[in-house]
Backbone:
């Protein structure tokens, strides 16, 4: 059966006075393409753990984790490099190393705590997104979270925009949310990603952590999920 792969689409978000672009998980060749593009259009570029480009009052920063942010909209500067970046071949990487780009785990008795590392859906940007009614969870992040949470039986604590049994209401900005517990199926069906909104939407918590009872995701299942991330991740797990 042919895999259905995620297609990349450049997504811009205004969060807390900054302009963001969600990018794929980038390999070094893609960072080089972007650095060359920015240099040729007049930016002074420095490459370290974060690529930094400066030109006439604008500062653009890019992380290989798949995030670009700037004090001004960086779409015109970064967007033209995307087609070439999407033609780069994927880089083989151990499954565990790739998984660590998306989440970390900690075991405590029968419960495992999954701490996800989304591009913008955590911390202060999580609050800004909920305040504005927006969502910044990328398609690859949604796929990984759904796959992990589907691997267990029981309920997990998340945030929803609809009430359930025992939900606790919380107002953020002018929007009403609920601290709720959902089954893995309910979460996978309602977990909202950027650019989409359904009648019932769920979000990972502000700290991006979810506690699961006896999760049982196999290496083969996780590997297959990661190979379906398509243009949102340029690492190939082995």
Residues:
């Amino acid at each position: 059966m042919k895999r259905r792969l995620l297609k990349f689409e450049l997504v811009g978000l205004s969060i807390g006075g900054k302009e963001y672009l969600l990018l794929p998980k980038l390999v070094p060749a893609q960072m080089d393409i972007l650095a060359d593009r920015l240099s040729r259009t007049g930016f002074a570029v420095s490459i370290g753990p974060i690529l930094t480009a400066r030109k006439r009052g604008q500062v653009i920063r890019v992380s290989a984790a798949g995030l670009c942010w700037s004090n001004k909209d960086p779409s015109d500067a970064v967007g033209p490099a995307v087609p070439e970046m999407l033609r780069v071949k994927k880089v083989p990487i151990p499954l565990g190393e790739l998984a660590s780009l998306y989440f970390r785990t900690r075991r405590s008795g029968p419960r495992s705590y999954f701490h996800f590392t989304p591009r913008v859906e955590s911390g202060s940007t999580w609050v800004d997104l909920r305040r504005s009614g927006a969502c910044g969870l990328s398609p690859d992040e949604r796929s990984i979270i759904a796959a992990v949470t589907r691997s267990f039986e029981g309920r997990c604590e998340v945030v929803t925009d609809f009430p359930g049994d025992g939900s606790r209401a919380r107002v953020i900005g002018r929007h009403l949310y609920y601290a709720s517990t959902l089954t893995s199926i309910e979460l996978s069906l309602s977990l909202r990603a950027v650019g989409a909104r359904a009648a019932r939407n769920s979000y990972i918590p502000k700290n991006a952590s979810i506690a699961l009872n006896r999760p049982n995701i196999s290496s083969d299942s996780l590997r297959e999920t990661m190979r379906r991330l398509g243009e949102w991740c340029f690492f190939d797990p082995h």
In short: The two ends are 19 Å apart (CA to CA).
